[in-house]
Amino acid sequence: MERRDFLKKTGATVAAVAGTAVSAPAVLAAEKTYRWKMVTTWPPNTPVLQTGAEMFAKSVDAATGGRIKIQVFAAGELVPALGTFDAVSDGTVECGSGASYYWAGKSTAAQWFSSVPFGLDPQGMNTWFYSGGGLQLWEEVYAPFNVIPRPQGNTGVQMGGWFRKEMKTIEDFKGLKMRIPGLGGKVVAKAGGTVVLLPAGEIFTSLERGVIDATEWVGPLLDLRMGLYKAAQYYYYPGWHEPGTTLEVIFNKKAYESLSKDLQATLDTCAMQTNLWSLCQAEAGNGQALEELITVHKVNLVRFPDPLLEDLRKLSEEVLEEEAAKDPVSKKVHEAFKKFKKQIGGWGAVSGQPYYDVIAKK
Fold this sequence. Notes:
By secondary structure, this protein is of the alpha/beta class. 50% of the residues lie in helices and 14% in strands.
């Protein structure tokens, strides 16, 4: 009798558990699926830049089990390249990918979150964002536009650019028409150059036809792909203007905050993953591409003369102070950046830099 009662109770428990197991998929199936659009400032299939945005979308899909699906549109496919920020801000799309210095017209302070002339390298930028309060400042700058930023990549220390003539002194910048965005562009203008802002898709043609005399783009990997060596004779380094350029993913505030906390955390984590992936892709690709540019295409690789770099450094300091003085937010960001650069620079002076000096001699 007791055995029969036990079996009845056990059978009822199993049935209850089975019922729960059967109903579980229905609960999962009921979870909402978000279908988002992402627009970018990058041409289709551009390594690191556009492929990074696509990598992010795939990572989000996988990490959320398909709960967030992001369709990625390259520059011009849904909105113009430089229409990305507005499209995210007004909610036309849920997210976008670009670089913050493109939005200097929206906020002067935005420029500090991509790259600062003679500023921080990729390691320094990431340290500022994740451990030095930089990301909180970035969020503050974008908040009035209903946009939430996250670092989503870094192109590494860039090249100085492609020039159709030799650059021996600061005087050679006078009258020079150069495609160069951000704070670096303002330094070139202060040196007497004419800054021309062009989306990536128009750079090669403009340089080839002489519409511009020089251009910076990124580094060997992307410069080789664009064929810039066919349009200019001199390839200068180092990239004083962009020593650690951060790429961004930006979210429409309403769209981001409509998600559960776990999904928000997943977006943040996937952005961080893509940030690391993009930098590694750039560094690996640049080494291989530089060798090809020199050995196969016989590019004339030239280092900016030290006196010229020193003049550019001085002009950069002036430009940064002038830009920071335009509004209290820019001043706040600039002072925070300077303080952190000094803090981390002291450590770099006794750690990384001496090591690099040693291996450079071998």
